[in-house]
Amino acid sequence: MTSTARSSRQSAKVTQLRKGASLEMVRLACPDSAQASLISESFGLPVIDSDGIRDLHHKIIVDTADSLNEGLGERAMQIHLQRIVGSFVGSAHGAGQFYSRAVTEARDATAKGSNDTRDEDIDGPVGFDGAAQRKREFAADMGLQAHALRCAAEGVVTAYEEVVGEAWKPFQRPIDNPGQTVDRKAAELQMAALS
After folding, report:
1. What is the pLDDT of residues 125-146, one digit of tens each?
2. Dihedral Cα 180, 181, 186, 192, nearest 10 deg
3. Record's superkingdom (predicted)?
4. How do strand 16-19 and strand 172-175 relate by DSSP bridges?
5. What is the pTM of this model?
6. 83 in the Ramachandran plot: left (φ > 0), alpha (ψ -120 to 50) or beta?
7. Are 157 and 168 contacting, i.e. CB atoms less than 8 angstroms apart?
């Protein structure tokens, strides 16, 4: 086998990409401002200053870029801000997923509690909340946290676009042959040496 045939076969491999969280994924997983207000009202929790969080995080990124402007080139600035924005978006997405699980658990516990014949799901003694109530309150707390992180992510994404001049996209990292074991890789290298 000639080296050109071997190299063209290797370059024809399909490279899979590990996708990072996008802002759309965050918006699907985390409560918006209207839902966060409803959660706050329903559970007696503080109302989140959504616009304040967005504005502050927007300002943080713009100020960071201004302070680094003389020390970083255009491409280095873009890479640096890409990483920072990606961490905010990833954090918000993780919080949104955790919130979704907490809502599911609260929903399940509440549904079980509505069955009058189940002794294990009845409320606790007077003065103590039942398990379903605690799960609903926990889900509400997680919802407000996810919303706050969503606002922070939205703020840094808009700042990225303002500073860099293009819309932020999640970084997609190539996956090195998923599922391929070390033994298989070694065997391929050995066979390539024999060819």
Report:
1. 555 468 888 999 999 999 999 9
2. -20
3. Bacteria
4. antiparallel
5. 0.73
6. alpha
7. yes
Distances in Å between the alpha carbon of 160 and those of 60, 63, 134, 179?
11, 11, 39, 35
**Structure-token pair, residue 158:** 């808009």
- The tokens 């699907």 sit on which residue? 28
